[in-house]
Design brief:
The protein is α/β, with parallel strands linked by helices. The chain contains 9 helices and 7 strands; from the N terminus they run ααααβαβαααβββββα. The chain has a domain of 171 residues: Maf protein. Helices cover 36% and strands 14% of the residues.
């Protein structure tokens, strides 16, 4: 079997069986070929390739912060002026008390049962009150009133926590507990009572006693906030009584200082 020649018939061997020579593989150059070769213009030599400089690194700018939308500007209106918030501002009576304490260089401490720390929170709303306010004790249980504030256990047993004598002893006790530089607090104030919504210790909701003890003497205020109680709003009733007690405590300390300042 004869394998076909892939190079075409030009390279097929002669029939007479002679061996192909180099002369058989080279075609002769004719005059026409020479004239076509001379007609092709010579190409100019290519200049040597030059290496291109590396591209400069792209500059990345930091992203701009997102613009804050101003509803007034978007609506074509001038921006509103800043308004001071009064949500957390202390009551005027609290500021008055703070000014009296700071002006006279007096210190104060609080003992709270009914208000649960609300009186201390009201005092510290005033900037700079740390020069006068020493701290407070929240004595909600009778055992704590006795152990931390030295309230007579017999008075607690016979009368309960909602009693004027308990308020007086709480105010006196907190003065003794807050000692700085070997000096007791100048003023002690206490709160005890029934926040409701129902009665406690045979006393109706809204019964409140505020004790004030100072360098000049002691005073207990008896208050009735039963008009703030609503049966259909037990949670709100408790809040109203507590807030009214805080305001009354501040007022009674101011009145106490004003009374003894005149004598």
């Amino acid at each position: 079997m004869v394998t076909p020649n892939p190079f075409g018939s030009r390279f097929e061997p002669a029939d007479h069986g002679t061996k192909l020579s180099d002369a058989n593989l080279i075609a002769p150059i004719t005059a026409d070929d020479e004239s076509q070769r001379q007609a092709v213009p010579a190409q100019p030599p290519r200049p040597p390739a030059q290496s291109d400089p590396p591209p400069a690194p792209a500059r990345t700018e930091p992203p701009a912060p997102p613009a804050q939308a101003d509803p007034a500007v978007d609506a074509g209106l001038p921006p509103l002026p800043p308004v001071a918030s009064t949500t957390n501002a202390p009551a005027e009576a609290t500021v008055e008390l703070a000014n009296l304490l700071l002006g006279a260089g007096l210190s104060i401490a609080v003992a709270e049962s009914l208000t649960g720390g609300g009186l201390a929170a009201e005092l510290v709303r005033v900037p700079g009150i740390s020069e006068s306010f020493r701290g407070g004790i929240v004595a909600y249980q009778n055992e704590i009133k006795h152990s931390l504030l030295d309230v007579d256990s017999r008075v607690l047993y016979e009368h309960g926590a909602v009693h004027p004598e308990v308020a007086r002893q709480m105010a006196a006790g907190v003065r003794e507990k807050f000692v700085m530089d070997d000096r007791h607090a100048d003023i002690g104030v206490s709160t005890t009572g029934v926040a409701g919504p129902g009665p406690a210790e045979d006393k109706p909701a809204g019964t409140v006693f505020i004790g004030v003890s100072s360098l000049w003497g002691e005073h207990v205020a008896t208050l009735d906030f039963s008009n703030l109680v609503r049966e259909d709003d037990p949670v709100g009733s408790r809040q109203r009584i507590r807030f009214a007690t805080i305001e009354a405590a501040v007022f009674n300390v101011v009145e106490h200082l004003a009374t003894y300042a005149e004598t």
